[in-house]
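Practice problem 4.
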């Protein structure tokens, strides 16, 4: 398996210098957090922590979804548009029955699970085609997902223009909004349902990665596809399964995002794939494939969200926020490349 392990980790260096280099990105992020707190100590509050967790919920789902194709040695640039399409589908079918300007005025009130399931199936089908192009036709993942991104955006924009004439789709069914926004109060802290769903998804993906044959095969393919074939791994079937799983999660997460924000347009999901990829890279998922952990993915999401929210909280210029986020991504990639080259 070359230098990669089936558990998705590179061997840890034993000397202090190597450990510091491997964890440099976390040192940088923690230093930024300390700087934010020093500038404005009020950032450390239960309210802000709750906001960060709430904003991170769907991002955890998106990152867990896109991490699979990355571990396979690829990427998925279509993720953001699939998320947006899922949000559009569910929002258009789950508007309040009392709203006089519904996009489908004669549509009966649907159970919320039905449009969500439809959105998940639609996203899974697109991801299946994307995975087929990569696994069977051998199209480069970047090109395949870029093309799929444009296809999905075109279709979702046509749908958006057709059903709402490009007007934002809002006034959602209160049951649908409550599905994400409601929650339970524990020790004075409101735990939103959307965060509970994210925790369940994270646990499920962790189980698949670490306790199933599919997870083992995913790391084997990403680490060394030729060796995986020799070991009897069906490359195409396993890659398709990972892509379909990603599509299902895009669909579910996109529906939650629409319910969380309370509206949807064809701009929903724009750039989400880049934030998810960035969180994965910061969390130690190698863009070269075969390396990654769910713990790292979630750590990347939370740290990235804390930094993003913290910079806005201390009123840093929004353009400078992009600079900082880009620099963090570059540092993470450099560290990843350095680890790979040294171990090889």
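Answer key:
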């Amino acid at each position: 398996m070359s230098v990669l392990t089936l558990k998705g980790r590179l061997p840890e260096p034993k000397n202090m210098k190597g450990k510091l280099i491997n964890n440099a990105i976390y040192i940088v992020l923690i230093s930024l957090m300390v700087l934010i707190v020093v500038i404005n100590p009020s950032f450390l509050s239960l309210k802000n922590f709750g906001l960060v967790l709430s904003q991170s919920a769907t991002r955890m789902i998106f990152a867990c979804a896109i991490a699979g194709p990355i571990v396979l040695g690829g990427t998925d640039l279509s993720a953001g548009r699939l998320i947006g399409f899922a949000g559009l589908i569910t929002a258009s079918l789950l508007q309040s029955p009392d709203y006089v300007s519904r996009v489908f005025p004669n549509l009966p009130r649907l159970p919320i699970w039905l449009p969500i399931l439809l959105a998940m199936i639609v996203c899974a089908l697109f991801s299946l085609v994307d995975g087929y192009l990569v696994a069977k036709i051998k199209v480069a993942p970047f090109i395949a997902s870029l093309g799929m991104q444009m296809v999905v955006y075109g279709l979702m924009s046509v749908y958006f223009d057709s059903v709402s004439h490009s007007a934002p789709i809002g006034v959602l069914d209160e049951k649908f909004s409550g599905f994400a926004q409601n929650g339970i109060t524990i020790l004075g802290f409101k735990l939103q349902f959307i965060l509970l769903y994210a925790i369940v998804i994270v646990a499920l993906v962790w189980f698949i990665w670490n306790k199933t044959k599919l997870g083992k095969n995913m790391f084997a393919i990403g680490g060394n596809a030729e060796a995986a074939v020799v070991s009897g791994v069906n490359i195409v079937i396993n890659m398709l399964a990972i892509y379909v799983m990603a599509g299902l999660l895009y669909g579910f997460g996109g529906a939650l995002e629409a319910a969380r924000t309370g509206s949807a347009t064809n701009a929903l999901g724009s750039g989400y794939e880049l934030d998810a990829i960035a969180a994965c890279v910061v969390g130690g998922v190698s863009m070269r494939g075969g390396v990654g952990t769910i713990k790292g993915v979630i750590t990347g999401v939370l740290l990235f969200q804390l930094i993003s929210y913290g910079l806005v909280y201390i009123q840093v210029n929004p353009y400078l926020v992009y600079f900082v986020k880009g620099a963090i991504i570059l540092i993470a990639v450099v560290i990843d490349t350095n680890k790979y080259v040294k171990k090889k």
